[in-house]
Automatic annotation (TrEMBL):
PROSITE patterns: FAD_PCMH. SUPFAM superfamilies: FAD-binding/transporter-associated domain-like. Keywords: FAD, Flavoprotein, Oxidoreductase. It comes from the Eukaryota. One of its GO terms (molecular function) is FAD binding. This is FAD-binding domain-containing protein. Pfam families: FAD_binding_4. The keyword DNA-binding does not apply. The keyword Oxidoreductase applies. Belongs to the oxygen-dependent FAD-linked oxidoreductase family. It comes from Lactarius akahatsu. Residues 85-254 form the FAD-binding PCMH-type domain.
Amino acid sequence: MTLRCEPMASLDNLFSHISMLSTTFLVVAFSLVSFSHASILTATPSGRYQSTCRRIANAISNSSQVFYPNSIQYDADIEHAIVSSSQVSACSVEPGSAADVGVILRVLGSTRTPFAVKGGGHAFNPGFSSTSGVQISMTRFSNIELNNATGTVDVGSGVTWDQVYAALDSTGVNIVGGRIPTVGISGLTLGGGYAFMSNQYGLSIDNMERYELALPNGTITNVTESNKDLWFALRGGGNNFGIVTKFTYKTVPQGQVWGGTLNYNVDQLDLVKEAVLKFQQKNDTKAALNVPVIYTPAGAISAAVLFYNAPTPAPGIFDDFLAIPSNQSDVKTRSFADMFNSLSFINPPNTARGRVNGVSVTQYSSSVFDAFVNQTLFWGGKIAALDPNLTVAITLEPFLKDVFSHGSDSAFPPDRSHALFPTAVTFAYTNTSLDGTVSKALRSYSDAVTAVAVVDGQNVSHAAVYPNYALFDTPLEDIYGVNLPRLHAIRKAVDPKDVMGLAGGFKL
Ligand SMILES: Cc1cc2nc3c(=O)[nH]c(=O)nc-3n(C[C@H](O)[C@H](O)[C@H](O)COP(=O)(O)OP(=O)(O)OC[C@H]3O[C@@H](n4cnc5c(N)ncnc54)[C@H](O)[C@@H]3O)c2cc1C
Ligand SMILES: *[C@@H]1O[C@H](CO)[C@@H](O)[C@H](O)[C@H]1NC(C)=O
Ligand SMILES: *[C@@H]1O[C@H](CO)[C@@H](O)[C@H](O)[C@H]1NC(C)=O
Ligand SMILES: *[C@@H]1O[C@H](CO)[C@@H](O)[C@H](O)[C@H]1NC(C)=O
Ligand SMILES: *[C@@H]1O[C@H](CO)[C@@H](O)[C@H](O)[C@H]1NC(C)=O
Ligand SMILES: *[C@@H]1O[C@H](CO)[C@@H](O)[C@H](O)[C@H]1NC(C)=O
Ligand SMILES: *[C@@H]1O[C@H](CO)[C@@H](O)[C@H](O)[C@H]1NC(C)=O
Ligand SMILES: *[C@@H]1O[C@H](CO)[C@@H](O)[C@H](O)[C@H]1NC(C)=O
Ligand SMILES: *[C@@H]1O[C@H](CO)[C@@H](O)[C@H](O)[C@H]1NC(C)=O
Ligand SMILES: *[C@@H]1O[C@H](CO)[C@@H](O)[C@H](O)[C@H]1NC(C)=O
Ligand SMILES: CC(=O)N[C@H]1CO[C@H](CO)[C@@H](O)[C@@H]1O
């Protein structure tokens, strides 16, 4: 059965959403209009890689195409979720077959041309899926195919999670993946994949059947559990081992869910903290909780995204959150796709610049919660003085202690014996001179919270940072830990000419 992809409607964003509800906090008046990044970026394309572009155009089949600046396709291909992740490339290419991805990799490798691979384009780190060389966009890999007999879904690597959930809506099954619309399946799955259903089934990488992969030398192969090394490496190892053209996920049963968002005002933070502390004592695999905390000049405001994987939650599980006075609630029984689509407001507008870092802790204790709030207010205040458009938004995401017990050894996480709460800290801003300042702030933020967690007794001074949240200069040891030597060895064997080293990312 082939399912149709539904395009997403244009998105609201978290901060304007909350502002609409509580007009006192109109601190973040982001425009909701989306722009093509080509019209924002000022650089002109380098002439340097034009011969590579032409060689690719001559080598690919008619299912694929090369595009140049001043075309609609080129603009779409270099576009990212935030503007600081977009770059002016010499050309873009939209491969239409796995074989052509192999052809393209061979040309790029033999000419040593810098390139980038873009799935959903949600990387916040500059250069991770953008380049001044050849921009590859996987957009033509758009198929979503459910095979209910084998309990698997094939998903093309250009697909985004909203398209997946729309296609699987009312099929009675689902796959374990992203929580926010427009994020790509590719980057999320290659880095790990924290999901609403992770307490029940693990990460996205714990629910894989197969990868169709264009190896760095251009050969197309299927990677399954029987390929010991690549199976290990692809689950968390990012874009180091080739370009994935198709992900085959195992399905899980899916009925109606219960959930939605509660928005709280400034003065409710103590109650939110108490509720978070109590929630972490519970042990229900069907329950998931995300708590955004957002900087405003008047203090930190918070929200609670509640999720229960059944039409009715277990008695009492979310009562503490429901009891806190809230300005708005859309918590109800609904389809999974409807719950998911209601969270599109968490995306920053695509005109913003942005940086994210992950802070891994094993518990949101009282002092760790306070440290997150303090750092959010401290850096929010400092940087808002340089950019009134700043938003600082973090998301607390507690999981059960055994969240990593649902899968086998993988590149990430390096230690599956206990949970790490990955905690995304996001800065979105428009002042173009602040990139370095914000990166420094994020490092300092992370160090400060980690120090408090260590004092709290948490063994996190070298806890693995989630690769999909980690700031670009995070040392590889702090992501892959004890797995690093094995990953280096696999990378050398699979990519002796370091072709994937021509693309940005956490490079092994
Ligand atoms: C609003 C928001 C919500 C998020 N929610 C979640 C969440 O719920 N759970 C979670 O775990 N993470 C989440 N993330 C983090 C997310 O997993 C990463 O941003 C991820 O990198 C996005 O994947 P992408 O395909 O959209 O990004 P891209 O920028 O396209 O790619 C990211 C990386 O993957 C590489 N890549 C992309 N496609 C391929 C391919 N086909 N083959 C090889 N390499 C490839 C790129 O080269 C790049 O290095 C969220 C991020 C944002 C911004
Ligand atoms: C693409 O090429 C194939 C042969 O390789 C041909 O059969 C097909 O008609 C071509 N399609 C288009 C749109 O040109
Ligand atoms: C797929 O299988 C599940 C049981 O595993 C069933 O509930 C569902 O109705 C099936 N869906 C379709 C579209 O056949
Ligand atoms: C990968 O596996 C699928 C499904 O079994 C098969 O159709 C495809 O031909 C395989 N591809 C390669 C390159 O072996
Ligand atoms: C959680 O519940 C499961 C059984 O449902 C049990 O095996 C596990 O030990 C419990 N964990 C904690 C921390 O209570
Ligand atoms: C808040 O953060 C600042 C900056 O890191 C630090 O100097 C201060 O001690 C922190 N306050 C508390 C109460 O932790
Ligand atoms: C942008 O940030 C710089 C510091 O990096 C600051 O000097 C400048 O005043 C800021 N611009 C505006 C318009 O606030
Ligand atoms: C803030 O946003 C407004 C409106 O988009 C813009 O005009 C202004 O230049 C931005 N300020 C900074 C410091 O970037
Ligand atoms: C602490 O964490 C490190 C990984 O960061 C691990 O190697 C070590 O075994 C842990 N120590 C204890 C006592 O759990
Ligand atoms: C390509 O790389 C794979 C994996 O290392 C290897 O098995 C294969 O022989 C290589 N193919 C060619 C043509 O070199
Ligand atoms: C319950 C609650 O927090 N209500 C707030 C909703 O927003 C308005 C406007 O900001 C506040 O005045 C209320 O206190």
